Amino acid sequence: MHRKSIIIVGCGDLGTRLGIQLSEQGYEVYGLRRTKNALPSLLKTVSCDVSCMTSLASCWPARTFDYVVYCLAASAYTEEGYESAYVTGLHNVLKQLQGNPSKRVFFISSTSVYEQRVGEVVTEVTPISPKHFAGVVMQKAEQLLEKVSYPTTVVRFAGIYGPGRERLIKKVQSGEVCSEDTNPISNRIHIEDCVGLLMHLIKLDCMDQPLQDCYIGVDNQPVPLREVTLWLAKQLGVTPSKDVAMGRGGSKRCSNQRVLDSGYQFKYPSYKEGYQALL
Question: Would you tell me which of 154, 211, 242, 274 could form a disulfide with 268, CB atoms 3.0–4.6 Å apart?
């Protein structure tokens, strides 16, 4: 039986977690990262800068991969940082695949492509017209995938939280809660469900089950951010002392119905289960 091979472009927290689980499931996994620091032994480390075609071409393994998972993180929250990571980098990887395509390319995008601001429900077919640079750049990256001849799938994650991603907890511990004036609808997903969803989609494709070209990766419960922070304060035994403006991603209710229809079951279906596990 053919052992499936995967290269994960961008082995930070998410990519490394995914790579380890895939390797434990019997996949041959290569992990590409900017630094020369070796990844865990279950992954074959590839070190290069995908934003530089010369660097990428010199280090890309001379083989065909069944799957490519592009989950690079921008080095800076700036338009230049995003362009380099998500547009230039993805363009170079797709160019490298010319003539030797994979079975499918997965691109990790963001719900920042949705511009909605007043709590509208958005799905994978909701038209996108982002105005902030983060969403604009992500849309440009997604459009690159529309030009290739092989299958691609975009996964738009919302606010990822989990071990090492405890910024909101620390804010609440300091007495801060979301003000009623801002109070956007918050869409979240635990890092373990990010990995679980990607594993689920890859396995479906391995079994030749049909995949959609886009999925929204959020849990089952979009909820006002003030509710989340007040709940965390109660769990932490903190008396809120400061109402502050929170949230930079607009305000929308992201639907995960397409994910649920695919058969994925969330380990942490809402923020309560996910944050309770952290606490």
Answer: 274
